[in-house]
Amino acid sequence: MTKINVGLLGLGTVGKGVATIVARQSPQLASAGLKITRAAVRTITPERQAHFPDIKLTTDAFQIVNDPEIQIIVEAIGGIDLPYALIQQALRNGKHVITANKDLIATHGQALTALAASQHVALNYEAAVMGSIPILRTLNTSFAGDTITSLAGIANGTSNFILSQMARGRSYQGALADAQQKGFAEADPTNDVEGLDASYKLLILCRLAFGLDATLASIHRQGITTLTAADFAAAKHFGCTIKPLIRAIRRGNQLSLTVAPALVPNTNPLSHVDDEFNAIELTSTNTKSLVLIGPGAGSLPTANAVVADLQAVAHDIRGHQTPTIAAQVLLTAEALELKTPQLVVLDTDLSITGAAIADHLGLSCVTYQHNNELTLLSPAVTDETIDTWRATLNRLKHVKVQHVLPVFNPDGRAHQTQLQNLTTTSETESQSF
Ligand SMILES: NC(=O)c1ccc[n+]([C@@H]2O[C@H](COP(=O)([O-])OP(=O)(O)OC[C@H]3O[C@@H](n4cnc5c(N)ncnc54)[C@H](OP(=O)(O)O)[C@@H]3O)[C@@H](O)[C@H]2O)c1
């Protein structure tokens, strides 16, 4: 069997994992006849070359995308500008491309998909969204006769690891340090903890799930950096835990998009997805609910998704089939404003009661006091109402709004009666979690 030659751009966490899995040649993979012949890195050392004796290393990635012997390019460098130029060149040269790069696909995915379609080559990026979870393949192949109405999930392992540690009693800083020490968080974790990484994944998911193109600016995005132990106490009081959620709800061509730490009732499967794991729940007309859970990052889990793409492309090449890629026609998503129950978290000097604040807002709602932190569980309201409340509350002398956390309601129609302890409670003693 003639080999299908693969060029690997990057031999870091993901690239090395791909080289390792391909070298193992499982029986299923052996039938694909894949061979990694060249790899691009920044630094070549004799030890590194010795570690990959069958792969010729270069520091010039363009040599690989211009190599006529190579049929498939795997991009695992990261960033946007360089991989964009490399992938465009590879596609123009008639090569199939696989990438793990969500930033690039969220930013230039449409242009690259159109280029791949015009060249009749594949552009696959399963590993870019939720690492090991085969969510893109599932969206592409399993919902042909179904309509997805909403999706929700945990798309960032770093944030989920930090919030899982905080639910067990760690401080934010302590949990972040643990994540960095275990390699789950980068030295600069901004993209992860501010929800940017998850937002990129949400945009990609919306294209495949709904055929709708949305912008980063249309996402209601909130980071996890201001959360404290008292938030977890309040969540626990209401029978919930706090998870870094992505959520998209569709009504026609309208989308309501959120990336935020949210209160998830303990009865929902997403509340039990901990640490670096990712998960996604799809709600659709026929299937109703489908949940997928798995490691969202890491060398071998991510590389496994890349290798699944490699095998699919090899299968198409051997069957002389045009890869199943089409220049997807996307409609532009319009904004959808939905009402959501919210946990309004306030710092107070204890001179004002929850009932007085609720009165001030003209609300009848449940409150929970934990030391200086007072939380109000609001009925379902719009973001506009929340903004009005913020302004009103910040004018009060003894109160400061810390943050407002949404309560997860998968279809946008759930009611806060799903939660526990819907009676006003005050706990001014310190609590251990
Ligand atoms: N890590 C994960 O768990 C994970 C999960 C899902 C998706 N991804 C995505 O996968 C991609 C790669 O991530 P990673 O974690 O594997 O990154 P990484 O560990 O930093 O590896 C990057 C690799 O690219 C090489 N490289 C960088 N600049 C280069 C250049 N100008 N020319 C040639 N080679 C260059 C590096 O070479 P040197 O080794 O010589 O420095 C390194 O081997 C990113 O888009 C990331 O978002 C990662």
TrEMBL record:
Its EC number is 1.1.1.3. Signal peptide: none annotated. InterPro entries: Asp/hSer_DH_NAD-bd, HDH_cat, HDH_CS, NAD(P)-bd_dom_sf. It holds the Pfam family NAD_binding_3. Gene3D superfamilies: Dihydrodipicolinate Reductase, domain 2 (3.30.360.10), NAD(P)-binding Rossmann-like Domain (3.40.50.720). One of its GO terms (molecular function) is homoserine dehydrogenase activity. The keyword Iron-sulfur does not apply. PROSITE patterns: HOMOSER_DHGENASE. It comes from the Bacteria. Residues 134-310 form the Homoserine dehydrogenase catalytic domain. Residues 10-125 form the Aspartate/homoserine dehydrogenase NAD-binding domain. It catalyses: L-homoserine + NADP(+) = L-aspartate 4-semialdehyde + NADPH + H(+). Transmembrane segments: none annotated. The keyword Ribosomal protein does not apply. Pathway: Amino-acid biosynthesis; L-methionine biosynthesis via de novo pathway; L-homoserine from L-aspartate: step 3/3; Amino-acid biosynthesis; L-threonine biosynthesis; L-threonine from L-aspartate: step 3/5. Keywords: Amino-acid biosynthesis, Methionine biosynthesis, NADP, Oxidoreductase, Threonine biosynthesis. Belongs to the homoserine dehydrogenase family. This is Homoserine dehydrogenase. It comes from Lacticaseibacillus hegangensis. The lineage of its organism: Bacteria, Bacillati, Bacillota, Bacilli, Lactobacillales.
